[in-house]
Amino acid sequence: MKISFIATNEYAPWGASEELWSQTAMRMAKQGLTVSANVKGWKNEAKQISCLENSGCIVVRRNKNRIQKLISKFFPHRNFSFLDQHCPELVIISQAHNHDGLPWIEACIARNIPFVTIAHNASAESLWPCDDAAIRLAKAYPQAEQCFFISHANLTLTEKQLAVELKNAKVIANPLNVSYDIKIPWPAENKTLKLACVGRLEPWQKGQDLLFEILRLEKWRSRPIELSLFGTGINQQSLYELKQLWDLGNVTFSGFVDNVKSIWEDHHALILSSRFEAGPIVLVEAMLCARPCIATNVGLVPELIQDGVNGFVAIAPTVEYLDDAMERAWQKRDLWEQIGRSAAIDIRKVIPRDPIEVFVNDLKSLLK
């Protein structure tokens, strides 16, 4: 059987939205299927691409150089020659959002190739499809064998944006970067509570600026609390300058960390200040590690966190509401370890042990 994966991401060499399709592709290749993948070519390629090739996947890089970009611009039909060359029996179109795979979807429909879509994100603020795209997507999505979403919230938002009911939709889970059975002792007792904000340093989505505004308030300056920012991104320097401008001595830039376990060995809680999300892997990881989470009400958050029981939810990504959630968490700080244990129990009720196996089986059931 021939399976092709299309990664529509044109934003960065790698991102969280790449993990589901890439790990699925490697799993299926190791099971003996013929697997190909089409990805954007980058000068500084992500190490995961070589992992794909080493597992037996055929990787084709699009628009890798100036000549390819010119051909793509003036002869757009050639963008989809990949489909004609590899003749897949099923195409998996992995989208960073809920609409950026439209050209590939339409190319599959034109060739009568069965396809599924994965939508990793949706936003009511900045990523609302224009009418032309919405009309085309409303026609195209129902023709998929299956439309996969990372959260019910993003499925519901997509249906609203496209004004269509997606009867072929299904919600799936992202892969895990920590052991499902992980157990980490509660950090050694000290007088300072340490919050970890894990994600790209890009405030337009991740909202680190909201945290900075809150932490410059006098009540938070006077409390023994520290914020560690884990990650890198296009706004790293400007966030550092903002830290300096507002004299936020309790904020630390900790860089990108491969070992997720090491974060939770000495941090007490996750703070997720995102303006929009799909199914943040960092949230699931923190809960698996028995750490309470303070998060904005976006994407998968309200499906996983019961406010005041296994975490704390800010009803909207604003300074006012996030400060309120942080304050409620602060007042219950003596219960954080207990709340974290509840989170660890609850997350295992909804997230499967091996999300990749579940997704592989879903895809295999669609092969004809």
Describe this structure in words.
- The protein is of the alpha/beta class and 368 residues long.
- It has two domains: 2-176 and 353-364, Rossmann fold, CATH 3.40.50.2000; 193-350, 3-Layer(aba) Sandwich (Rossmann fold), CATH 3.40.50.2000.
- Helix content is 41%, strand content 17%.
- The protein is built from 17 helices and 13 strands.
- The protein has helices at 17-30, 47-54, 66-74, 81-86, 102-111, 131-140, 152-162, 203-206, 208-215, 218-221, 236-245, 260-265, 281-288, 301-304, 319-331, 336-350, 355-364, and strands at residues 2-7, 34-40, 58-62, 90-95, 115-119, 146-149, 169-171, 193-198, 225-230, 251-255, 269-272, 293-296, 312-314.
- A seven-stranded parallel β-sheet has the order 3-2-1-4-5-6-7, sandwiched between helices.
- α1 (17-30) crosses α17 (355-364) and α9 (208-215) packs across α15.
- It is globular.
- The mean pLDDT is 93.
